[in-house]
């Protein structure tokens, strides 16, 4: 499980089983990662990573709660649908669409990503077929 804290709310993200999600885990092995995320088109929050990660792109339509890797170095959390070629990283597990929109608020955010306490040694991954 991946944790994302924003505006005082902890968001739990269940990761997909792919090399991109494992690369995100690698970024967090030494501790939390803070990313400034911009709001775009009233459908997503995105922030730039300091390095490119492996991609597993596919043509998809996102849903609220999808966590995506775009262009190899953009971490994106969708709160509305969008169709494009992206890499799935995971999905928000603990918030409904209205709760997610409320937690993210309007405008830009600062998000802190970390691994859950009990997953420090091993992340939980969703089976790839469940990441659709």
Summarize the structure in words.
The chain has 132 residues and is mainly beta. It has one domain (2-117): Cyclophilin, CATH 2.40.100.20. The chain contains 2 helices and 10 strands. The protein has an 8-stranded antiparallel barrel. The radius of gyration is 13 Å and the shape is globular. 31% of the residues are buried. Mean pLDDT is 91; it is low at 118-123.
Short description:
This protein has helices at residues 19-27, 97-104, and strands at residues 2-6, 9-16, 33-40, 44-48, 58-61, 66-70, 74-78, 83-92, 109-115, 125-126. It is mainly β. It has a single domain (2-117), classed as Cyclophilin.
Distance between the termini: 17 Å
- By helix and strand content, what is the structural category? mainly beta
How are the strands ordered across the major sheet? 1-2-8-6-7-4-3-9
> What percent of the residues sit in helical stretches (DSSP H or I)?
10-25%
